[in-house]
Amino acid sequence: MTAHHAAYDLLAEQLAADGTDINGVKAALKRQKIETPSWGYANSGTRFKAFAWPGAAVTTRQKLDDAAMVHRLTGIAPSVAIHIPWDRPEDGDYTAMCQYAEAQGIMIGAVNPNVFQDDAYRLGSFGNPDGAVREQALDHVLECCEIMSKVKSHALSLWFADGTNFAGQDNLRIRKRRFEEALSVVYQKLPPGGRMLIEYKFFEPAFYSTDIPDWGTAYAWCLKLGSQAQVLVDLGHHAQGVNIEQIVAFLLDEGRLGGFHFNNRKYADDDLIVGSVNPFELFLIYNELVAAELGADEPARATALNVAYMLDQCHNVEGKIAPMIYSVMNCQEAYAKALCLPRGKLQLAQQTGDVLEAHRVLSDAFRLDVRPLLAQVREEMGVPVDPLNAYRASGYEARIRAERGIASTSGGFQ
Ligand code: PSV
Ligand code: MN
Hints:
Elements: H1 3-17, H2 22-31, E1 36-37, H3 60-74, E2 79-84, H4 94-103, E3 107-113, H5 131-151, E4 155-158, E5 163-164, H6 172-188, E6 195-199, E7 209-210, H7 215-225, E8 229-234, H8 244-253, E9 257-262, H9 279-294, H10 300-305, E10 308-311, H11 321-340, H12 343-351, H13 355-367, H14 371-381, H15 387-394, H16 396-404
Parallel strand pairs: 1-2, 2-3, 4-6, 6-8, 8-9, 9-10
Antiparallel strand pairs: 5-7
The protein binds alpha-D-psicofuranose and manganese (II) ion.
Manganese (II) ion binds near residues 159, 199, 234, 261 and 312.
C-alpha cells in the first residue's frame, strides 16, 4: 500500500462521517474538464521583455502536441482554445488542424478572434468610429464563426480591446450602439449549437473607458442577443476586491454564465497561474459552481454543467508546459474541496443564522487536504498520481528543447 492509499482511506472515512458521497465526488472529479489556451504554450512576455523559453512551441502543431501532453498527464484537459490569426494554418486547412488535434487525443475548443493587433484597430474594432474598420473586424469575427464549424468548436470567445484613452475622445453611447449592431450580426451567424461567450474587462489597453467594462454590460447584451450568448468571466478582469463569486452566483442563477478564463493576479491583469495568489477565491468560485451543479434549481444546474472552463494565462518566467499542468491541478484541487464541503451542515448553519458556524464549515472545506483523494482519482483514471513530477521525469522537455531549440518568435505577444 502506497502512502496515498492510507491517507485516502482516512479521508474517505472522515468524509463519509460527514455524509459525503465519496463515489459521487470521485465521479465528478473524473468528469472535470479544463481547456488550455494555445497561446499559453508559446513565448510571451511583458512590454519590457519576452524571455524565450527553450523548446517553447511556435507552430500550432507544437502547441497541440504540448496540450496533448498536458492531457495525457492530467486526464482532464482534453481541449485547446485557439486564437485567430495566431493559430491560422498557412494553407488555411482548418480541417487538417482539427484532425491533427484528434490524432493527438485532444479537441479544438473555443475559437478566439483577434481584433486588437492589426494597425487598423488603433481606435477600436466594433466600436471604431470608422465604418470600414468596423466592417473589417466584423469580417474577421464572421470568418471565426466559419472556422468553428471546421474545427468542430461550439464556442466563439469574444474579447475586445476597444475603448478610449481620453474623456471626449468618442461618443460613449454611440460606441455602445456600434457594438450592439455588430454583435447581433455575429450572433445570427453562429453555427448551429454554437455559443457566443462575451468577455469583459474594466481597463487595458484603453485606460479611460472600455467598451465592455463589466459583467453587467456583457449580461445586458447577452439578454438582447439571445440564449446562445453568455458571459465569460476572466478572473483578472475586475477591480481590486470585487467579489467574483457573487458575480458567478448571479450569472448561474440567470443561466448566463458561459465560461471562465482562469488565471490569477495580484495587481492587475497579471495572467499568473490560477490559484497561485488567492486559492481561497478560486475555491469560493468553485463552491458556487458546485452548489449549482448539485442543486435542483434550474437554469443554474444546467448552466453550471455547461460552463466552459478555460485557462487564459501567460507563462513568462516559469516554463510553459509544467505551469499548465500545475494550473490544471490547482483547478482540480479547488473543485475537489468544493465537492467535499458538507452542504447540509452549511445550509443548516445558514438557515439558523449561525454566522460563525457557516463560515467555519466553508473555511474547513477549504483547509481540507484533498491531495490523497486526487491521487486516488488519478490512479483510477490511469494517469500519473503526481502529474507534475511525471512530466519532469518524462524527458519531454529535454526532447522538445533539442528538437525545437530556442525560438525568437512567439505565437502570442512579443
Ligand atoms: C485579454 O486580456 C484576454 O484576457 C483575452 O481573453 C484575450 O483573448 C487573451 O487575454 C489573450 O490575449
Ligand atoms: Mn481572457
